[in-house]
């Protein structure tokens, strides 16, 4: 599903350059759940964005479902994202003037889906928010907003779902509830890669853990299944 080879990302040039990722390599099989962990500044979010095609690497290679992202321009990467990728941001990125239903329906409508509202309602029901469809983000708890974001990310039925700190703004109980939804999605055969600092959750959920520090992956932990 995902192959990362000798990946590097550097911002700036010369004396002002900053290397965020250096010589990163790993593979993710279809249907795996993977956690990327490490301290702040270790490059977790950058790595997640590169793998999802949100940004372009400085060096190395990323192959996502057979597509080599490093050879694609921005428009081509967007096309790959639309076909294969879902992404959940840490700060939810919901539109405040739209209801939960409308937030989920927007990407469907942009793709010309004539049953966008129906599909959006089904997705909200799947994440346990069937009774909150007409509520605005300000009327929802943090956990509910995250589940709306999850439903929206899954609107294109992605093969792989990237999640940046999916429980970072949530209390422990709500974090468990969100992780259960992610687990159900993973159990349905979808690949999930998440960046997190929550060590308690990674002990229970992912198949594989990548430990990042100082711009490198220094350990890969494979859980026995």
Describe the fold and architecture:
The chain is α/β, with parallel strands linked by helices and 225 residues long. The protein has one domain (2-222): P-loop containing nucleotide triphosphate hydrolases (Rossmann fold, 3-Layer(aba) Sandwich), CATH 3.40.50. Helices cover 32% and strands 28% of the residues. It has seven helices and ten strands. The chain has helices at residues 44-51, 74-84, 100-110, 116-126, 142-153, 172-187, 199-202, and strands at residues 2-11, 18-28, 33-37, 59-64, 67-68, 85-88, 160-164, 191-196, 208-213, 216-222. The strands form two sheets. Strands 6-7-8-3-9-10 form a six-stranded mixed beta sheet, with helices on both faces. Helix 6 links the parallel strand 7 and strand 8 (191-196). Helix 3 packs parallel to helix 5 (142-153) and helix 4 packs across helix 5 (142-153). It is globular, with a radius of gyration of 17 Å. The two termini are 19 Å apart.
Key phrases:
7 helices; 225 residues; Rossmann fold; alpha/beta; four-stranded antiparallel β-sheet
CATH top level label: Alpha Beta
Class derived from helix and strand content: alpha/beta
The main sheet comes to: 6 strands, mixed
- Give the number of helices: 7
Mean pLDDT: 86
N- to C-terminal distance = 19 Å
**Spatial strand order of the main sheet:** 6-7-8-3-9-10
**Which topology does CATH recognise?**
Rossmann fold
Overall 3D form: globular
> How many distinct domains?
1
**CATH homologous superfamily annotation:** P-loop containing nucleotide triphosphate hydrolases
Number of E strands = 10
Please give the share of residues in helix.
Answer: 25-40%
Query: Any low-confidence stretches, pLDDT <50, length ≥5?
Result: none
Q: State Rg.
A: 17 Å
- Proportion of residues in extended strands: 25-35%
Order of helices and strands: EEEHEEHEHHHEHEHEE
What's the CATH architecture?
Answer: 3-Layer(aba) Sandwich
